[in-house]
Amino acid sequence: MSKPKILITNDDGIYSSGIRASYEALKDLGEVYVVAPAVQMSGVGRSMSIMEPIRVSHIVFNGMEGYAVDGTPTDSVVIGIFRVIGSLPDLVVSGINMGENVSTESVTTSGTVCAALEAATQGSPAIAISQQTSDFEKFEFVFKPANYSLAKKVLRMLAKKVLENGMPSGVDVLNVNVPAGVDKIEFEVTKLARNLYKTRIEERKDPRGRSYYWINGVEVGIAEAGTDIYALRRGKVSITPITVDMTALSKLETLKKWLSI
What we know:
Blueprint: E1 5-9, H1 17-26, E2 31-37, E3 56-61, E4 64-69, H2 73-85, E5 91-98, H3 103-109, H4 111-122, E6 126-131, H5 135-140, H6 149-165, E7 173-178, E8 187-189, E9 197-205, E10 211-219, H7 228-233, E11 237-242, H8 252-259
Parallel strand pairs: 1-2, 1-5, 2-4, 5-6, 6-7, 8-11
Antiparallel strand pairs: 3-4, 7-11, 9-10
């Protein structure tokens, strides 16, 4: 019996500590392929390089073999499936991401989650997994060693479950967020919160007096019970089932009445 094929990607770049942690957690579960952006690509969502060529480099880094893609996380998934593996993987894992990916904001902007959505669109079950960190850690320690022990256990458990049983009916992606500073695994199945941040714009001046802007935000103070943010803040591993079909099916009849059709 052939071994299952597992594709690992991310948006932090192929040299990140999180992708190494995923590789260590999964390397004995099947044929593991690591295909990820050559550099940090957080926040690019599901963008794809259709107006420029994509270059791919074979690398060996601290004993881990992989392919560095001069493109986005979505590019990496497409290259991984159609060129590196040559067939649909039995599982695609995106992460472990440095920093949580919760709420509708993250699902539509995170390269980590959107790489998993691309894999699901192509036909592979996918897990997007992220570890809660401070804003400082997200950008300062992405390439440095971090404690991924709990996230690795969670990922391995879920990966084995998917490989053995497949995804639950109607679910394309599991968006998993692991809390920081917790030793015990407690799962909570959640829905997406509406927002994680209250968006702000900060205006600054360059040396020539011209304005430029930073988009940032302040975390929302109150999270609705049952959401991913609520669970994560209470030390629970949040698992949110996601489908690539974003149609509001329950509102089809409402829309028809609204349009008087």
